[in-house]
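Researcher: Good morning. I'm working through a list of sequences from a screen, and I'd like to move beyond sequence-only analysis. For each chain I'm collecting a predicted structure so we can compare shapes side by side. This is the next one on the list. No need for commentary yet; just the structure.
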Amino acid sequence: MRFDAEAADCRVFTYREGLLSMVAHDLELRVTRLTLDVDEAARTVAATFDPTSLRVVQALRDGRPLPDALGANDRAQIERSIVADVLDAARFPEIRFASTAVAETPGGVRVTGTLALHGRERPLEVSVRLDADVAVAEAPLHQPDFGIRPYSAMLGALRVKPDVVVRLTVQRPS
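Model: Good morning. Structure tokens for this chain:
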């Protein structure tokens, strides 16, 4: 089965730190161009994500939405910074995941594979929760493992934590 951004929802959650973190906010981002191929018979998963398609969904504080915290200009600047400065999408225009093993677990599956991000490949293990009509995969990523320097401003007084969380939700066919 092939899924795209219409059927699969990929969110990235970033968290702030540093001396000025109290005046900043965490972010929820959405990948708007992706493909996810799941072959249940062969027990394989492959995914491709377009890093230039990351869009700011909303600002968060303590996990709660801050609907009016970001204006259109703020969102556009954040998106440009992520694409150009953090992910360097001009040099690394694709993020890929390919499974090497899929194992059943209570309530879901564990998918082990390789993530290619920012010119580096690293092993990744993802827990997938299977409900009746939805599959939810969640994986923490440590940006420096992929050679990514987390965003920093004001001489480091405001930084994005090195660890982000990626959540992929797929509507399961009935």
